[in-house]
Amino acid sequence: MTLDLALRDEILASVPSLRAFAMSLTGHPDRADDLVQDTLVRAVSNIHRFEVGTNLNAWLFTILRNLFHSEYRKRRREIEDADGSYAARLSAPPEQGARLDFADFRKALAHIPVDQREALLLVGAEGLSYEEAAEVCGVAVGTIKSRVNRARIRLAQVLAVKQGEEFAPDPTIRAALQGTSKA
C-alpha cells in the first residue's frame, strides 16, 4: 500500500496530538519531537500494515507508545556520561594474573596426597558436606575433616600463602583500579 494524499494529510493532522502525547510521556520537548519523528518514520515505512477504515490515530499512538517504552527500557540500562568522567573511572583487573594463579594452584594440588586431594575437592570444589564426602569415600566424617584440613595446610605451604589477604589483588593492581599511585 502506498501513501496516498488523503492518508498523508490524516497523518500530518495527527502530529499535534502525537506531540502532546509524547510531551506527556517524556517531559522534554526535544525528546518528544524525536519520538514523534521516529513514530512518523515507523508509520510511513510500515504503512502497508495499516488497515484502511480503522482508527489511524490509535495506530499512530500505539506506535509512539511502543517506541517510548522501548527507548525507556534501553535508557534504563544506560548511564548519562556527557563528559566521560564515569567511563574514565571504570576499570577491570587484568585476567592473566588469575590464570597464572590457577596454574600454580593446579601444580600445587598435584603435590598433595591423593586421599587428601580427593577430600578437598569433594568438599571445596564439589560443595559436598563432610558427611556426603565421607559417604563417597567410605570413611568416617572425622577422617574427611582431617584430610581436608591437612590438604589446606599443605596447599598453603606449597603456594607459600601465609594469610588470606594474599588472595586479593596486589597493591599495584589495587592502586591501578582505584586510579591512585602505589605510594
From TrEMBL:
Keyword hit for Transcription regulation: yes
Source domain of life: Bacteria
Pfam families: Sigma70_r2, Sigma70_r4_2
Domain (RNA polymerase sigma factor 70 region 4 type): residue spans on this chain: 105-155
Keywords: Sigma factor, Transcription, Transcription regulation
Residues of the RNA polymerase sigma-70 region domain: 15-77
InterPro entries in the cross-refs: RNA_pol_sigma-70-like, RNA_pol_sigma-70_dom, RNA_pol_sigma70_r2, RNA_pol_sigma70_r4_t2, RNA_pol_sigma_r2, RNA_pol_sigma_r3/r4-like, WH-like_DNA-bd_sf
Similarity annotation: Belongs to the sigma-70 factor family. ECF subfamily.
NCBIfam families to which the protein is assigned, alphabetical: PRK12547.1 (NF009199), sigma70-ECF (TIGR02937)
Protein name listed in UniProt: Sigma-70 family RNA polymerase sigma factor
Provenance organism: Microvirga arabica
Lineage of the organism: Bacteria, Pseudomonadati, Pseudomonadota, Alphaproteobacteria, Hyphomicrobiales
